[in-house]
Design brief:
There is one protein chain. By secondary structure, the protein is an alpha/beta fold. It contains seven helices and six strands, in the order E-H-E-H-H-E-E-H-E-H-E-H-H. The structure holds flavin mononucleotide. Flavin mononucleotide (FMN) binds next to helix 1, strand 3 and strand 5.
Length: about 210
């Protein structure tokens, strides 16, 4: 079993990464492989709504988004982490997730997220963490991904990784998140082994608000 953790900060070894390291270590202690994926220091562009993923089966821009999708296909669970920028999740992570989720499962390619558990993690100096969690979690709730929670909202406080080190409650929350994710993955595996099938997918239709 493997969990991919996304660091959506421009800082490779900053606060978000420090929080994710705590989750990753706890996952490993509980028998689950963990890998942190950094989206990089450059601005990440959002979806240009070209529809090209509908024929390509991947985003038309070959960058970290497509690189991550290949890894996501092999993963059983996900943690998406972002610093708070202006009281919500950093724009680069949201742009990354817009293209990643919009291009997912198209043109005959497998859906790499459906029924895989996920959690959001945020980092801030002071304010905006719960709004940022809401931002990130909305990708999961439209994708049939069970959300894993912890004992408090999944955030750490600090401007530097050293300050996060002093946030004992934040790191405690991250460790509990790691344990809860490992438990959820083991429950899902036990369910599969017992023959519990995935829910039927009813063929639906889109009804836009045209009236
Ligand atoms: C553009 C920008 C906007 C920010 N806005 C906020 C904010 O609204 N609230 C807050 O508490 N911290 C804010 N911060 C501080 C970061 O959220 C905080 O330093 C965070 O822990 C950095 O995480 P990182 O090291 O993973 O990038 C902002 C930082 C930047 C660069």
């Amino acid at each position: 079993m493997k969990v991919m953790l996304v660091n959506g900060s421009p800082h490779k070894a900053g606060c978000t990464n420090r929080a994710l390291e705590e989750v990753a270590r706890t996952l490993e202690e509980n028998g689950v492989e963990a890998e942190i994926f950094w989206i990089g220091p450059k601005p990440v562009g959002g979806c240009v709504a070209c529809g090209g993923c509908g024929t390509k089966g991947a985003c038309v821009f070959d960058d970290a988004v497509n690189e991550f999708r290949a890894k996501a296909a092999e993963a059983d669970g996900f943690i998406f982490g972002a610093p708070v920028h202006y009281a919500h999740a950093a724009g680069s992570l949201l742009a990354f997730m817009d293209r990643l989720f919009y291009s997912n499962g198209r043109a005959g390619q497998p859906n790499v997220f459906r029924f895989k558990p996920a959690a959001a993690v945020t980092s801030a100096r002071r304010g905006g963490t719960t709004a940022a969690l809401d931002d990130i979690q909305k990708f999961f709730t439209i994708s049939q991904m069970p959300i894993v929670s912890s004992r408090y909202w999944n955030n750490v406080h600090g401007n530097t990784a050293e300050q996060v080190e002093q946030d004992a409650e934040g790191l405690w929350t991250m460790r509990q998140l790691g344990r809860n994710m490992a438990w959820m993955l083991k429950c899902l595996e036990a369910g599969r082994a017992a023959g519990i099938e995935l829910p039927e997918q009813e063929a639906g239709s889109q009804t836009n608000f045209i009236r």
